[in-house]
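Fold it.
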Amino acid sequence: MREHKGVDAFISLRGGNAEVISEDLIKGFQNLFDSKPEFDALICANGGFAMDDSDEAENLMAMNFEPCAAACSAAILDYISEDEALFVAFSATLALKEIDDDSPMKKYIESKRDVHEL
């Protein structure tokens, strides 16, 4: 990978909070490149879904919000071009609506709403 100008790579992330994810991204960049890269675009393919009564519901912030928070953290933004760079993160239009307290998807909606607010 080091001899290519373009990027076609996958960096494995442990998950968790934004700080841990940022550290994994930076280590991944360092493993892929001889010198500090500068990206024109960063696409954060975050996402997960679970109903509130599922065991996985407690992990929704880690699946949906934390990867985006990490990708736009100060540590990562240092790798992004200052000229017309693009940042893409995935949320849900459902998150733009008012949250019904009785919704069985409240935790999912909240985790996606936080992505919109970055």
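The longest strand covers residues 41-44.
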